[in-house]
Structures are given as C-alpha cells and as structure tokens.
Amino acid sequence: MKTIFCSEPGSAGLLKDLYNRPDCPKEIEEAVSVIVDEVRRGGDQAVCGFLKKFDRQELTPAQLRVTEAEFEAAEKALDADSKAAIRLALEHIQDFARHQMPKAWSYVPREGVVLGEQFTPMERIGCYIPGGTAPLVSTVLHTAGIAAAAGVKEIVAATPPKKDGSMHAATLYALKAAGVKEVYRMGGAYAIAALAYGTESIPKVDKIVGPGNAYVAAAKKFVYGKVAIDMVAGPSEVMVVADSSANPEFAAADMLAQAEHGSGLEQAVLVTDDPSLPEKVMQAIERQKKLLKRQETVERVLEHGVYMIVARSMDEAIEIAGKYAPEHLELMIRDAEKRAKDVKAAGAIFLGQWTPEPAGDFTAGPSHVLPTGGTARFFHGLSVMDFLRRSSLIQYTQSALEKETDAIARFSELEWLDAHGSSALIRRKG
After folding, report:
1. Which of 142, 261, 328, 368 is catalytic?
2. What pLDDT digit, counting tens, does each position of 317-327 carry?
3. I need a labelling partner for 61 at 20 to 30 A (CA). Which of 30, 51, 68, 302 fits?
C-alpha cells in the first residue's frame, strides 16, 4: 500500500504516476499478434489447436459449439436461488436498457427539408464471457442481456471451458435466460480472433463486447476495424472518495472487492480529506482480508495496487477523481449526489454509503462493462446504444434543393470534385 499526502512536496509527481497506468506489455501484444494471425489463416484447425494448448481440451470443430443437451443439464444442475438471482439481475439490466433506447426523430429545419435519425439493431454480436480465474456469470447479463433488449437477432458467446472440459452451469443458464443459443467453448485471444474473422464452423460477428484479461484486450485491439469493439479494457479499478462521515469498514470491503479479481494488476484507491481515515481503512482491510478465499490474489494487489491519498480539501479530492477517471467511483461523502456533478470523468459513479460497487457489478441495471485505465475520459460504459446502428435521414423537395444548388456547386469547385456539383446542377435542368 502507498500513501500520498497532497500537502507534501513531490505529491504531484506521485499522482501523475498514478494517473498514467501502464500500457499492455509488448511481449503480450506480440504473442497475441501471432495467435490472431494463425486463427485468421487456419480457422477451425487453429482454434482447436489453441484450445488444446491453452485450455487443455482436445476437441474437433464439431465439438466447439455448446449443445442443447448441455444447456438443459446446466438448468437442472443449478440451484433455485442462483436461478432467481440471475433472473432478477437480468430483469433489472434489461429494464435499464429499455429506458436507454432512443427513438427515431425528425424535424423541418427549413422549408422543404426534413432531417432526422433512425436506429436499427445490429445483426450479429459476439459476447466474450471470461471464465478463467472466475466464471463471470454476471457479464453474460451485462452484455448479451443488453444486446437482446436492443433487438439484436443473433447473439453469440465465447467462453472457456472448465479444467475438466465441462461448462459452468450458471454461465450457460444465464446465456439461455438472455436468449443466447449459439455458444462456443473457447477463450482468450484465439476466441476473439475466431469471432472477428470467422472460421469454417463459426460465422463472424459485427461487433465484439465484453471484458477479459490482457490477452483478450490486446486481441480486441488487433481486430478493431475488421469488427467493431466496445473498448479495450484493462485491469479493474475502484476509487473511493470519502470524508469523515464514511464508514471505514465499508470502504475497505469495497476496495477488497476489486482486489480479488485475479490478475494482480487491479487498483483500489482511497481519496479523502480526513487525515485519520486511511489508517482506519488499512486496519479494516487487514482484518477483512483474512476472511477471504482469494487471499493470495488480494495480497498481490495490496502490495502494488492500493493507494491512500490525503487531499487538502474535498474539492481537490474530486479533482483527483476526475484526473484518474476510474472505472468505478464511489462517493462516500456528504452531498454525494450534488458533488457527483463535479466529477469530470468516471465509468460509473456510486452515490453514498449504501451503494457498494458490487451492486453495479451484479444487480443494479447499468452495464458493468466499463472503461478502465483512465479511458473514461473519452469512453463510456456499455449501453444499449452499442448494439444499435444510427442512420441519418435527409429529404429535400425540388424547391428546397434549388435554393442550395449554388452552394453545393461552389463546394464542388473548392474541393475539385466536379461530379459532386453536377449531381445537384443536373436536377436544375430537370
């Protein structure tokens, strides 16, 4: 754990280092480049080869797709409480998505001209569902569930098998609940490549969404342009902005919730204007971590990724939050709702003591697929808009075009594009 006092000399440099999260290591990008290229060229054979190499599963191309019998077995194996939790979360997520849905619109800006927009769902979406260090069942709902609410016809999922070759029952149940019928047992960079380029047995998709490890993130970066992607996400992170009213046990619990994700590169940051709070939170972390199952993972983050920042004022704390642009920002402060308006950048903002970040991860409603690494400055979390195509609508009458023909022709001369001008001028001739 590292402590930064904003009142001390050198703190600005330490904060700058915190803001500038490290890039993906070159060796990972190089390895991923090879994997992506092999899948692009080798199709099914390459996918099965990487499945054997990385996931220790020897399968034929015909065995890549999850069968209906496996879906049925998963539903039977899963307990009632788990099913109820999945259905509850899906209901909340899709309700939020429906509230986000835009409506086609138009207006008349000048006589004879109608302008507007319409929105149509994408045809085929690929959802990546991590399953390595932890089966992220909720990611199914926060990707495929939203795509379904947007009206996407074909939703495809890729998720790695367990060590024994079987699929996570809860993941399959969630996929079926979200309306996903096409699921492939594959993970990592090779799964991203297969979705992007297609293989003999896996039709390509239009867009890939969902989080993953550094290899998945690098692969999404490589295939961008061949397909659309939601974002290039890195390790998870949370920043807790707290004042003297904050409960240190709550803050500690929420920081540990991010630390247990698995990569060891996660960050958990406390920013406060109360000089006594960091010590209280650190003591709470030490107590609580002993009760966790993933202590080894947590310890790696505690050593390198936990920061305690003592700001000189709450205004400064809010400013630090905006510059850091965290994936998750918790405001454990008085007037949290009011101060949230002052935050310049964050993937999701959690207001008050009773809004823990895991509520957003699981049941709240907005997608938990959020920008990391400071990219909240220019990216936003996954939403229903990510599954829609927006088309402009433009309509002119003859008289309206006539009024603008000279201006159109002038632009064609300025840009040395004679045919553009002719397109308008020829209509003047009738």
Report:
1. 328
2. 999 999 999 99
3. 30
